[in-house]
Design a protein that fits this description.
Tetracycline Repressor, domain 2
């Protein structure tokens, strides 16, 4: 799957912070951006949670947008590392078949969603931003990671261009994780939420693999 992606740029002073303080700021950002869409997230709540001043925060960032994109990139990178770690642990490789690859990756992703609800909140909310400029930049981060996972998938036997099918799988990924987040927010128990996610994913993959007709039309 290749190496993890590098993070979005931050001021050099941020990277020089002691690890504990840096992680405290990151954690406050994850909680704020994970719980609220970009437009409703507030730097005031972030600095309060991190135990720093707003002026102190601006020693490390140039803008709210820069900070947000850094957190979006961080969330995708950690998801990406989780998927790679699962493959390494199992001694497995990504299947060449594009649907089998999506099934494997999406199943590993759901465990990450359960373990890191704030990050799935950020990932899901990044597709619902009113500001076209920020939305486009967040989408670019998603595209980069998603495309890297599927760049080695085979194209033999596909009835449609692989690039268009990958775009369809992106739509499926956005839909299923948004449904997953909504189900988690409803208060259902985790096994039920995970089961519903898998059932929906399997249905969509079955439709893609077999089509909607039980037999060919005469």
């Amino acid at each position: 799957m290749g190496p993890p992606f590098g993070g979005q740029a931050m001021k050099e002073s941020f990277s020089k912070l002691p690890a504990e303080k840096r992680e405290k700021i990151v954690r406050a950002c994850l909680l704020e951006f994970g719980a609220r869409e970009y437009g409703k997230a507030a730097l005031d709540r972030i600095v309060e949670s991190a135990g720093i001043s707003k002026g102190g925060l601006y020693e490390y960032i140039s803008s709210k947008e820069e900070l947000y994109l850094y957190i979006v990139e961080l969330s995708y990178s950690r998801l990406y590392e989780h998927l790679q770690g699962n493959l390494d642990e199992a001694g497995a490789a990504l299947p060449s078949d594009i649907l089998e690859r999506f099934a494997l990756v999406s199943r590993a992703a759901v465990d990450f969603y359960v373990e890191h609800p704030e990050m799935i909140g950020i990932i899901a909310n990044s597709s619902r931003i009113d500001d076209a400029s920020i939305s486009g930049k967040a989408r670019s981060i998603f595209d980069s990671h998603f495309d890297a996972i599927f760049e080695g998938a085979g194209a033999r036997g596909l009835a449609f261009p692989k690039a268009r099918l990958v775009e369809l799988l992106k739509w499926m990924s956005v839909k299923t994780r948004s449904d997953f987040l909504a189900a988690m927010a409803s208060g259902r128990d985790i096994p039920t939420v995970v089961s519903g996610y898998i059932d929906e994913r399997d249905f969509l993959l079955a439709v893609l693999g077999k089509g909607i007709y039980a037999e060919a039309a005469p």
